[in-house]
Specification:
With 488 residues, this protein is α+β, with helices and mostly antiparallel strands. It is built from nine helices and 29 strands. Helix 4 crosses helix 6 and helix 7 runs antiparallel to helix 9. The longest helix has 33 residues, at 331-363.
């Protein structure tokens, strides 16, 4: 924004332009001076004379210039640049001010010298002070991915000053480590001054005790830092961490083959893998189908069952032996858990197949199923009375309802016709309450079976339950509909 005083008519014809670089300024709270360039551009066809740059008084900032801020004249369409500095009047203050620059000059108008003034506002504020931990980059560099009992590894703590300030590294300390891991700084660290863009490397020796709790752990280091910002001293902490896997002899090889993160998960994993092997072989199954075991390795449902079995075995092991097998253990415990898990996997698979055969008979759809059979199976499948609809290419007079669908085929049926017949008024009312989207298929089947009311299939587009290929479907409805309807 430019303000021209006085001479409104002249100001409309001749407007010297003032630009600042930067357009707004952030000052250091230390009171350090910041340079500013001011460019005055005469875009008119008149000569400007006796130009003088100044500023309106502001007691929050200190403005100065080593060179003269005056210019005898400025020819048309020429430009001149002045340089001056701005700093805080009181180091340590936090400000947000508007500094108004003033340009005085003279223009010749009708043979007379007319003084003019242009004001140019400039936003000035203090720069936010960053804590020392924002000014450094702390990392742990190491190839130490795993560590076995009674072994020692090396890690390096790298501290890099990415700022133009001097940072004091006051201390380095490991925090939160378990008691069976020893961390030693070699050599012992002493307070150091970290110059701008300088790096410090500290060696750390990592040792695992004879008895450990295998698993993943974080090696955490706290670096205490300090720096001056003006007269203010600021302290902060930077945190760096490195993950390491502790194990016992032989454990890492077994867990690597099975891609397991912890020995605790081994029993459940072995039980499920054993059952999956017999499932693929087809032992005790009516039909041998390869690769249809319901628990897929590394998926959430696999880990749900695996962890549950592992917890159960841990409790049983504790009741028998008197200790947790996954706390602090050796190779003998791994062997015992391995063979017990294999046996449990075989027994568990046999029981599962017996139960699966019984459940399959209660859920499997058949072309011999009547309306009541379908209602009960819908209840067991936790399906409501609202089903998806499709139109068949062979008969498009009425939609068919989808009971079950896969990539290649659909189980479908026509709508069910409910005839209340001579059922009592109370039974009719209860049946009607079930003929809604929230109705219970099993309760509806019970009412129809125990009363004089009846259910039958609609004769279109098919006469009962059918298994049809996907290619027989001509169209699909945008939303589902009730599979049951009352007829008079």
């Amino acid at each position: 924004m430019l303000l021209v005083l006085p001479g409104t008519l002249f100001g409309a014809e001749v407007k010297p332009e003032i630009d600042t670089q930067p357009s707004s300024l952030e000052l250091s709270v230390s009171g350090k001076e910041s340079p500013v360039l001011v460019a005055v551009r005469n875009s008119s066809d008149s000569v400007l004379s006796n130009l003088r740059l100044s500023w309106l008084a502001n007691d929050r900032v200190r403005v100065g210039s080593a060179a003269s801020l005056q210019l005898p004249k400025l020819a048309p369409h020429e430009e001149h640049v002045w340089e001056f500095t701005i700093a805080l009047a009181q180091p340590g203050d936090k400000i947000g001010e508007t500094l108004r620059l003033r340009l005085d000059y003279i223009i010749s108008l009708a043979g007379e010298a007319v003084p003019q003034v242009v004001l140019r506002p400039m936003e000035v504020k203090t720069r936010e002070v960053e804590p020392p931990d924002r000014l450094v980059d702390v990392q742990v560099k190491t190839t130490l991915d795993s560590l076995e009992t009674s072994r020692t590894g090396i890690a390096y703590l790298v501290i890099y000053n990415k700022s133009i300030q001097t940072i004091m590294v006051r201390s380095i300390a490991p925090v939160g480590k378990p008691d069976f891991i020893q961390l030693k700084l070699s050599p012992e660290f002493k307070e150091s001054k970290l110059q701008p863009y300088q790096t410090i490397v500290q060696e750390v020796q990592v040792t695992a005790n004879r008895s450990v709790e295998p698993g993943k752990y974080l090696l955490i280091f706290k670096v205490t830092l300090g720096s001056h910002e003006g007269t203010t001293w600021r302290d902060s902490n930077a945190i760096a961490s490195q993950e390491v896997i502790l194990g016992v002899l032989g454990e890492s090889a077994i867990l690597k083959v099975l891609s397991l993160p912890s020995f605790f998960l081994l029993p459940g994993c072995l039980v499920i893998l054993t059952a999956g092997l017999f499932c693929r072989v087809g032992w005790l199954r009516r039909q041998t189908r390869v690769g249809d075991f319901p628990l897929k390795y590394n998926e959430p449902d696999f880990w749900l069952v695996s962890i549950t079995i592992s917890l159960f075995m841990a409790i049983v092991y504790w009741l028998i032996v008197g200790r947790w097998y996954f706390v602090r253990y050796g190779l003998q415990d791994i062997a015992i858990v391995w063979f017990i898990s294999i046996v449990l996997g075989v027994l568990g698979y046999a029981v599962w197949q017996r139960i699966a055969k019984w459940m399959e008979d209660r859920l499997t759809l058949s072309t011999r199923d009547g309306p009541l059979d379908i209602l009960r199976k819908m209840h067991r499948r936790k399906t409501g009375l609202v089903l998806a609809r499709v139109t068949l290419a062979a008969d498009q007079t009425a939609p068919a309802f989808v009971l079950q669908e896969n990539d290649n085929h659909l189980w479908i049926c026509p709508s069910m016709r409910i005839n209340l017949g001579r059922a009592s008024t109370e039974v009719q009312a209860e049946i009607r309450t079930q003929l809604t989207a929230e109705g219970d298929p099993n309760r509806l089947a019970d009412l129809l079976e125990t009363s004089s009311a009846g259910a039958s299939w609609n004769l279109h587009p098919i006469t009962g339950v059918r298994l049809v290929p996907q290619t027989d479907v001509a169209a699909r409805a945008n939303q589902g509909d009730m599979i049951v309807e009352e007829v008079v």
